[in-house]
Design a protein that fits this description.
Length: about 250
């Protein structure tokens, strides 16, 4: 009986310590003040879409995300099953700044840009971004690269911006939606509820993630764009989903 009691107490102590360490870790993160960090490196952000598109086509980037996100093009009306709209996606990333505190802890801020083109003429993909025909979408997510007290890598979503563009007048857009999310494992606490939907009233957007959102070490983090594409001359319609996510 004593052995069982000791065993139960051991399990209870282990569970209590896990909850305590999780609570401490979450509190520890929320007390991180960027004002305590000094910027030791700052790079000018590239915002020219033609330059970003060229870098993305070359596969150049400063952050290895491990995935290109997801792209879906689902036909809404099956009566137009013979009409196709090929899609290509390109990605690039850049290091914007490095900040360090007096303990040597660092926060690196990155911009990850993904560009998607839906065009009936795939030969247009080789043009400049401005000259590429079809329906285009791009988004840039801004993330902080941080480490927990054990030295494990986490990413915190800061904000996202982007736009849909139409360079072919035979198409129109409707039902725009943008979702920010950062869900998965985090040493700093629970990430349940770290998802927020927006409905832009124009073709461009710029949204910040809530400052209370915690960094994650695994699981999707980023922004998803959704829009309905209609080909005016035929009435063919597609739901276009484009995710700029990684992890």
């Amino acid at each position: 009986m004593k052995k069982k009691l000791v065993s139960y107490l051991s399990v209870f102590t282990l569970i209590s310590s896990l909850f305590a360490s999780s609570a401490f870790a979450q509190t520890d993160y929320h007390h991180v003040d960027k004002q305590d960090y000094k910027v030791i490196q700052k790079n000018k952000e590239i915002t020219d879409l033609n330059v970003l598109y060229e870098l993305a086509k070359q596969g150049r980037g400063e952050l290895k995300t491990g995935t290109s996100g997801t792209v879906q093009l689902i036909r809404v009306d099956p009566n137009y099953s013979d009409e196709t709209l090929p899609i290509k996606v390109f990605e690039t990333s850049q290091l914007l700044q490095v900040a360090e505190n007096n303990k040597g802890d660092r926060i690196e801020t990155f911009a990850v840009t993904k560009l998607a083109i839906a065009a009936s003429d795939s030969s247009k993909y080789d043009s400049d971004w401005d000259k590429t025909m079809g329906v285009k979408g791009y988004s840039t997510i801004y993330v902080d690269k941080v480490y927990d007290s054990r030295g494990y890598l986490h990413y915190k979503l800061v904000s996202a911006e982007g736009a849909w563009e139409i360079s072919d007048t035979q198409y129109s857009l409707s039902n725009r939606k943008v979702t920010l999310g950062a869900s998965g494992f985090s040493y700093f606490g629970s990430t349940v509820g770290q998802k927020k939907d927006f409905k832009p009233t124009s073709n461009d957007f710029n949204y910040s993630a809530p400052t209370t959102w915690l960094p994650i070490s695994s699981g999707p983090i980023g922004a998803t764009m959704k829009v309905t594409i209609t080909r005016k001359n035929s009435g063919a319609t597609w739901d276009f989903t484009f995710s700029n996510n990684f992890l």
